[in-house]
Structure formats: structure tokens, C-alpha cells
Amino acid sequence: MQKNDDTKTKLGDIFHYLIVLEHCLDLKPGEIIHVERFGDIAIGSESNSANMEIKHHQDEHHLSSRNSDFWKSLKNWIINHQNMDKFKRLILVSTSMTSEDSIFHQWNELNEEQRFKIIKDEGNEQKKKEEGFRKFYNEIFSVDHKIIRKTLAKLELQLNEKDITKRKDKIKQHPSFSLIKSEDEDSFIYELLGSILMKPVENNGEWEISHDDYKTHAISIRDKQASGSRPLPGTYSNEAPSNVSSYMDKVFVKEILDIEYEDEVEEAIVNYWRMNQTYIDHFNDDPIYLNDVMEYKSDLNKRLQRMRKSSRKRCEVDNHCVVSQDFFDEVMLLDAMPFGTINPNRDFFQQGIVHSIVNEGKLIWNLKK
Exposed/middle/buried for 318, CB within 10 Å: 0-12, 13-18, 19+? Predict the structure, then answer.
């Protein structure tokens, strides 16, 4: 996949997650949001249930009469009509615009019969290039017309929706942000998104957010924003990788062996593993903390390079292993630096980060190299 294509996919994902967050902000007691289960987004509610398909276009885009965004969504809703019966509204949310020559112009003002006639008539005209449209059209009209009409009656179009930047600004206007300092608003959004992205991990693959779940996370994040810091989460203090020997081919292990410091290998592997587990569980899917970790790692590497330069001055050919080991010890004894809002940090995490720097070839322990 080309890099620009991947960027478009990522932007579409972020747009999707921001809409999930918008609806989380308005959840009422007893309501629940399902993501990627009954469609892109589904809201379970006694009074305001809805099923949504989300379409994001990076550039200006028009929803023409035969555009697949609409016809594929309609086909999915109709084919899965038994699951859709529980929803009062079916909503296509899109950054696309529409024009007067599109059958979707003023769609939301049309009644059920008018909508049915419009889409039925659209397929009566055969065109040369219509393979994608014709496939969706035929699948739709192979179903009982009563089901089609029932689906169309609930279908709303939310077009010309705000792009990612404007959507984020819109979220900041929500009453939930009244207690958040303006300089912390982006951070609050990113952390809320991080908690949303972690739900499948917490729920054994089920991606759903209840009113109570969201409220608990939001309060916790708000309080953290107020305090300005939090300790490093996740310690794995009584755990270790199941197969230490599988790490022996890692660069950071070979570098320790190169200075004849075998006694340090096992602890290095454990700290490297504990750091990675903490990183995966708490930082990997959280945009703001991911950036904080990267900056912390860069700053730490600069400090290590300065220490290495100083230690090399004491190194002679016949004592290079001893001085290299001293350099290793000095680094391992460094106080764990806080980063972002993580304060205090933990020794195992910083030492694991150091080993990852070595593993990437950005630092070597042997001072004669």
C-alpha cells in the first residue's frame, strides 16, 4: 500500500473515532455504544437508538446519485434488516456534499414513498459504466419491497460533515469541556480517544462503551488533567517473559555480552520486556502519551551519548571492558526521568527504554568501538 493511501485510511479512522467520542459525550444512563459490531457505530437506547455508517473523504467530494457510499450502506442495512429493526434511525454520516442534480438533494425532507420511487427509478436507466452500482441495486431490490420501504423511512443523510480539525473544535464546545483548561483540551480529547481505543482489549474483543464506563474514564482523565501528573501505570513487578532464551539474539543482549557483563543479561531482558508490556498496554494506542514517550526516548538518548563521550576518555585498550561496564552501571543507576504527565517514572521502564535504544543501534556499550 502506498504511503498516501495509508494516510487516507488513518484519517478516516480518526474521523470515525472522533464521532464515537462525540456520541460518548452525550450518552445517558443505560445507553451503550457499539463500534464495528452492527455497522460502524450503533447506539443502544430506549429512546434514541441509531445505526451509523461513517464515510470520510480527505478532499472535496460529492455524493452523486450512484455513489457507492450510499448504495453500499443501504444494501448492508437491508440485507441485515433483522438486526436493524432494533434501531429507530439509520444514519449515513459523510464529509461529502450534494448538489441539486443528485437524487439525495433534500433527502431528509422526503417521505418513505418518495424515497422509494427515487431509488427505484434510478436503476431503470442502464448506463455503460455501472457495474458497482448495478450489483448493489440488484441486491437491494431482490428483497421484499416492504423491507426496503421500512429501511428508507428510517434513513437519514448527514452530509457535508466537518473535517477532522473542525470536528475536534466542535467537540471542544461540548459542556463537558467547561471544567477543562483551554491548554489541556487537546490532551483531554486524545486521552478520551485512547480510552475508547483500549475498550476491545479490556472487553475481550468486544468494542462497546457504556454510559458508566465512559463516565468513569472521563472523570479519571479530568482529575489527572487537574493534578498535572500521574505515576507510571502498570508494573508487571512479579512477571517475566515466558522464554528468556528467545531474547538472546537481540542486539541489546549481544552488546552486554560484548563487554563481558553476563550477570546483567537476565535483568536487562526482564526490564526490556516489562517496559514493552507497559508501553503496549498504556501508551501504544494513546496519541498524546505516544508522543511523550518518543520525546522522552530522544532526550534520554542525547544524555546517554554525552555520558558515553565522557566515559571514553577513561578508556584504554587493556581496560576497555571494565570501563565499559562502569559506563553501563552509571546508566542503569540514573534516576528515572519523568516525561509528559508521568511523574514519578520507574527504573525498570527507563532501563527498558535504554535497552531499546541499544537494540536500535543508537548506543553501544563497548567504548572501544
Answer: exposed
Strands 50-55 and 89-94, bridge-based pairing:
parallel
Using the CB atoms, write b or e for 159-191: b if 16+ within 10 Å. bebeebeebbeebeeeebbeebeeebbebbbbb
Q: Are 25 and 37 in contact (CB under 8 A)?
A: no
Residues 6+ apart with CB under 8 A from 56: 11, 12, 15, 16, 94, 95
Give Cβ neighbours of residue 339 (< 8 Å, ≥ 6 apart).
292, 293, 295, 296, 299, 345
Strand order, beta sheet including 155-158: 155-158, 89-94, 50-55, 41-44, 32-35, 208-210
Task: Pull the grid cell for residue 106.
Answer: 433534500
- C-alpha–C-alpha distance, residues 299 and 337, integer Å: 10
What distance lies between CA 19 and its chain's CA centroid?
Answer: 13
Beta carbons of 194 and 285 less than 8 angstroms apart: yes
Candidates 211, 278, 186, 205; CA nearest to 23 is 211
The answer to whether residues 90 and 156 touch, using CB atoms and an 8 Å cutoff, is yes
**DSSP characters over 110-156:** S-HHHHHHHHHHHTTS--SS-HHHHHHHHHHTTS-HHHHHHHHHHEE
Grid coordinates standing for 23? 456520541
pLDDT at 201 over 70: no
Q: With a threshold of 0.90, does the pTM exceed it?
A: no
Asked if residues 287 and 295 have their Cβ atoms less than 8 Å apart, the reply is no
Task: Mention every residue, 6+ apart, whose C-beta is less than 8 A from residue 80.
Answer: 38
Neighbour-count burial of 271, counting CB atoms closer than 10 A to its CB (0-12 exposed, 13-18 middle, 19+ buried): buried
* Residue keyed to cell 451503550: 32
User: What is the average per-residue pLDDT within 300-305?
Assistant: 96
Pairwise CA distance, residues 160 & 107, whole Å = 14
Question: Is the per-residue pLDDT at 359 higher than 60?
Answer: yes
Give the integer Cα–Cα distance in Å for 39 and 108.
21
| Res. 5: pLDDT tops 70 | no
